[in-house]
Amino acid sequence: MTISRAVLLVATTSLLCLTSHSLFAIGPERPNLIVVMADDLGYGDLSCYGAHALKTPNIDRLAENGLRFTNGYCSASTCTPTRYSFLTGTYAFRKKGTGIAPPNSPAIIPERTETIASLLKRAGYRTAVIGKWHLGLGGPAGPDWNGELKPGPLEIGFDTCFLLPTTNDRVPQVYVHDHRVPNLDPADPLWVGNEKPSPDHPTGLTHRDTLKMDWSHGHNSTIHNGISRIGFYTGGHAARFRDEDLADKWVEKSVEFIEQHQQEPFFLFFSSHDIHVPRMPHERFQGKTKLGFRGDAILELDWCVGQLMETVDRLKLTEKTLIVFCSDNGPVLDDGYKDGALEKIGDHRAAGPFRGGKYSVYEGGTRTPMITHWKGRITPGVSDEVVCTIDLAASLSALVGESIPPKACLDSYNLLGALLGEDGARGRDHLVQQDNGNTGTLAIRVGDWKLHHYPRKSARHLIVEKELANAKVPEFLLYNLAEDPGEKKNVIQEFPEIAERLKSQLIGIVKDGRTRPGLN
Ligand code: NG6
Ligand code: CA
Predict the structure, then answer these.
(1) What's the pTM value of the predicted model, to 2 decimals?
(2) Which DSSP helix (H) or strand (E) runs through 325?
(3) Can you give the CATH number for the domain in which 226 is found?
(4) Which protein residue's CA is at the shortest distance from atom 4 of ligand 1?
(5) Ligand 1 atom 12: residue of nearest CA
(6) 92-140 tens-digit pLDDT
């Protein structure tokens, strides 16, 4: 190479670097990122997904001006595994202990694990999680409720957190801010346990007639705010919240975070507790739908999304912010409280056209609302591409130019093009779905085909509908989602080769320990 050509090459390369660098620094490719994850929201629960029994104007606006997915998934049909895989980009079935976390669960994601938050933080983002956590806190001994709650979100890439530490139906009803329970009075320490702390400790069993919302199964231990919960606790009275105020608190803390970081790119994981039980929306939403508190909680969720959108608009960040809306698992009507959800359902179909819901690997368990919105960058429309919450880690990392270390995010696919609705960009060609923890119940979708696998021990997890409760469960079921989206007709006898192909693909995926492409 002659000297002048070399000089030209160096000059061009530096110019290119400079251009791409400055684009990254000021351009639209480092947008703020807000992921709103709803809790137990089904495919059919929003008016933009066909619900008629209520209106969700804010989420509808997000869909109308963004991209609404008809094949959007979460990776599991309960909360903890979906959240685990959303953050780590790795299927939860690969790691023991990722089923529904109990009140005193230690941190499930080990310190320094690479997560969507740590990747974005390394790329220069300010990162926060606000709302439901349900991934455990503290070392192997579990959370030290009166001391430092560590490790937790801050040890896996979040700069700050303001949490509902477990679920709203699990004790204790306190917030966690960074490493501590705020407003805790040392004279009234918080105790959390599995056993009744004293014979006279009031519970949902002994004081059932005092409850403002009765339980239907489980949920009959310690009473707080007139609602009995899963697990026991005492103390921490000054730190306790009212269920009715949770949504307002998430919004307040999120607005604070967005305002503080409006000049720099930020990543906000807005993790709503709505519409998980006990459904106890703020008084201003109560009675506003004909669906009971379950519907009213959907209105509250919609209001939260509206508040986030308004804040972004007010700060003139709409064209600099990618908002992703999703859910952590499909719907359930009676999840342990008598809140009228079952009785008032009418013709509302919480899972839309799909069968099953929370706890199942039928489509209703994991096919959930998914919307992306980025004014000026995403052309509004509807996408049929298959995308999953597990893909956000690789996709958003790709967006901000952060590469993923080889041993991280083992199942996260970079589907950025599909998430932004780019011409010709494809979603996944296959996806594994699971129910709760390590039951072994899995399903694999490849194109329009879907194979369910029920290892014998977990057969009871098929119990999603009364008619199936006592049915003998075959180990494998095969459905064609194009012809039979409701998964009514098991066609495994007609298409044995297809079943075999999916079966070996599923076995391979489990055995290989990873699916993320581009790795050796
Ligand atoms: C179940 C609870 C259910 C809910 C679920 C977790 C009973 C009988 N059922 O064990 O009410 O809390 O766990 O839901 O206690 S999730 O959306 O956080 O995964
Ligand atoms: Ca959930």
Answers:
(1) 0.94
(2) strand 321-327
(3) 3.40.720.10
(4) 335
(5) 169
(6) 999 999 999 999 999 999 999 999 999 999 999 999 999 999 999 999 9
